[in-house]
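Need tokens for this chain, all 413 residues.
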Amino acid sequence: MSVLDFDLSDRDFWAKPMSEREEAFERLRSLDAPAFFEESEMTYMPKGPGYYALVKHADILEASRNPEVFCSGDGGATNIPDMPAEFAEYFGSMINMDDPRHARLRRIVSRAFTPKMIKQFESDVEAAAVGIVDDLLAKGPGCDFVTEVAARLPLKIICDMMGIPERDYQFVFDRSNIILGGFDPEYTGDDLTQLAERLLNAGMELQQLVQDLAAHRADNPTGDLTSSLVNANLDGERLTMQELGSFFILLVVAGNETTRNAISYGMRLLTKNPDQRALWLEDVDGRAPGAVEEIVRLASPVNFMRRKATRDFEMNGHLYRKGQKVVLFYWAANRDAAVFDDPLRFDITRHPNPHVGYGGPGPHFCLGAHLARREITVMFRELLRRVPRIEVGKPDRLHSSFINGIKHMECAF
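Here are the structure tokens for all 413 residues:
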């Protein structure tokens, strides 16, 4: 550690300019073995024993392929300290589980996210994107691209899928911001001693929203996802109300925040790389698949997931002991020069593009990847065709170690 003058556990590190973050992770990738960091003190989570930072693409692939060794369920995957028991009621979703519990829940809910099912939502996604661009043109330049464009599409689609009425969109949006607000005072306040209470309240309110809806849908089913889930019976298996609530929190938080930030980051990349915008405009539909994958690679909306070793295990020349934590920094792996030629370059024709923006291979690969790709594709298709010269200003970044987020960004066209 003597060669490193930064600390990934320091909240201030995640407020540094992006160039400094990129330099830090480049230095970590150049080390012969993964660096070890002490955990930071948190008011609502006990300080743990520390963790190894996995920043190389090869390490993240290998750890992801061995979920029986690098588990998610012992203390949780979405936080570095072990999750307190009181948080599990709201945030103990399948992303924080291992098989067989993880497989059971994923088996029940995955039927709503197959390519065939996503195709049924295509017209809804397209209509929503048209309406968002209509509103953008009506308001004119100077508006906030994040709140007026990028955030609206995934929020509407997720809420519509679940059957959440439009009057509750802002309620869901605000609570998801609190849950993934990191250390950012705009969402979590200045007093970190009250952060746990805010997180628990936000989780409780979202869970109550969907449980009330589910109770009604149990007797009055419609065609929405809540009706399907509350009445699902797969080989005798049903979701409990607590499982349904935790899944909804995972869905609205992951589905809203990640796609919102991919769209925001993509617009920033197009602004900074006019040659790539021109290239995409030459064939909007044909180049969309490659462009979307490259946006997700560089955006890497989720910075990391955590795992814990269930036994001693040697991986890529390093021995991990039972009980040790490893943190999979997807953002860093997606900039690994050993895999990506000129990794900081935005290239919509990049091929192959084996990024881990949706997580690594294995049981925890993003369930909503098909939907996210569709939403990003449709949103940019509508923007490029109707507002081809739209640009955005300097992003106001979220102060968070977990989410690579953009809170606000002024647009001009």
